[in-house]
Amino acid sequence: MTVLKTDHMTMRFGGLTAVKELNLEINQGEIVALIGPNGAGKTTAFNMITGVYRPTEGSIYFEEKEITGLKPHEITKRGMARTFQNIRLFKELSVLDNVFIANHLHLKSNFFQAVLGKLQPNFLDKVIGERRYKKEEKEILEKCYMLLEKVGLLDLKDEKAHSLPYGLQRKLEIARALATEPKLLLLDEPAAGMNPKETHDLTGFIRQIRDDFDLTVFLIEHHMQVVMDISDRIYVLDYGINIAQGNPYEIQNNQRVIEAYLGVTEDA
Ligand SMILES: Nc1ncnc2c1ncn2[C@@H]1O[C@H](COP(=O)(O)OP(=O)(O)OP(=O)(O)O)[C@@H](O)[C@H]1O
């Protein structure tokens, strides 16, 4: 099944076309990379797919249903999650609390509102609500523990997020994304800031979570070794234009891609 499809997806900022008529097609279970030099339009493409920007032109389909123009939280609810180039964690909160909070999209009872005193339930509702809250809290905690175990952070669950080394903060971000139970996971530069050992382990880690959580993965990455090791297929952007697509071997040997990366012009 096609999990993600974009049809002539375009984003203009004034006179600048950051992404031009991009056609992507990503299938269930694939690991696909989006690469390109700085400013090529990769993050803009992610921002359109996840609802941060509405495309100026073109359409986006998730699991064959149109999602163009939906809000980010609506897209998350349908089963898409992302991490960010600049890590976004609650830095003063513990590792566990960071994952716990990320579950809120899946809570059936509105306990966050209740906790904040915004709801005034009658006595019976309150008793039932509290019982349900306790049951849900227990279930969520179990899920958080499972997620932290999967990403190798269970032993650090009580540490503050900001005290973790950068590479582990990235893994915590991934655990937070997994907490929303996505089918498609978008990773924006997962290797950034990782040390050589973490970078080396990243390929196995991403494949493992893809298999364990039945995911499809779409990632932006600058680290070419990671891209070539991990990707089933690669799309290349240059100045907003999709100049190539193919498997790692095809991309490594594509003259247009080599020129885009080396900055060679056609008359040079
Ligand atoms: N909100 C915005 N307003 C105006 N221009 C923008 C905006 N966001 C991005 N751009 C421009 O669009 C182009 C593509 O930027 P984008 O961040 O998508 O590239 P990128 O491939 O993700 O780059 P990098 O690898 O450096 O993160 C750039 O020229 C950038 O300056």
TrEMBL record:
One cellular component (GO) term of this entry: plasma membrane
Pfam families: ABC_tran (PF00005), BCA_ABC_TP_C (PF12399)
UniProt entry tagged with the keyword ATP-binding: yes
Keywords (A to Z) from UniProt: ATP-binding, Nucleotide-binding, Transport
InterPro entries assigned to the protein according to its UniProt record, in alphabetical order: AAA+_ATPase, ABC_AA/LPS_Transport, ABC_transporter-like_ATP-bd, BCA_ABC_TP_C, P-loop_NTPase
CDD domains: ABC_Mj1267_LivG_branched
A single GO BP: L-valine import across plasma membrane
Domain called ABC transporter: residue spans: 4-264
PROSITE patterns: ABC_TRANSPORTER_2
A molecular function GO annotation: L-phenylalanine transmembrane transporter activity
PANTHER family membership: AMINO ACID ABC TRANSPORTER ATP-BINDING PROTEIN (PTHR45772:SF7), CONSERVED COMPONENT OF ABC TRANSPORTER FOR NATURAL AMINO ACIDS-RELATED (PTHR45772)
Protein name listed in UniProt: Amino acid/amide ABC transporter ATP-binding protein 1, HAAT family
Organism: Natronincola peptidivorans
